Amino acid sequence: MLRFILRRLLALIPTFVGITLVVFIMIRAIPGDPILTILAEDYSEELAQEYRQKMGLDRPVVVQYLIWLKGMVTGDWGNSLISQEPVIREVAKRLPVTLELLVLALAFAVVFSVPFGVISAVKPNSMPDHTLMTVSMLGISLPEFFLGALLLIVFALKLQWLPATSFVPLSGGLFENLRHMLLPAVTLGSARMAMFTRLIRNSMLEVVRQDYIDTARAKGLSEWLVINKHALKNALVPTVTVIGLQIGYLIGGAIIVESLFALPGIGSLGIDSILQRDYPVVQAFVIVSATGFLLANFAVDIVYTFLDPRIRVR
Amino acid sequence: MEKRSMFGIVFRRLVRRKTAVFGLLVFFLMVLVALLADLIAPYGPNEMLEGMQYRPPSLAHPMGTDMLGRDVLSRVIHGARVSLGVGIVSMVAASLVGIPLGIISGYYRRWVDQILMRVVDLMLAFPVFLLAIMIMVVLSPSASNVAVALTIVYIPRYARLVRGVVLSIRENEYIEAVRALGIRPWRIFLFHILPNCIAPIMVLVTISVGVAIIAEASLSFLGMGTQPPTPSWGSDLREALTTMELNPWLGIFPGLAILLTVLGVNLLGDGLRDAIDPRLKQ
Question: Which positions 244-263 of A are in contact with B (Cβ < 8 Å)?
Answer without folding.
Answer: 247-249, 251-253, 255-256, 259-260
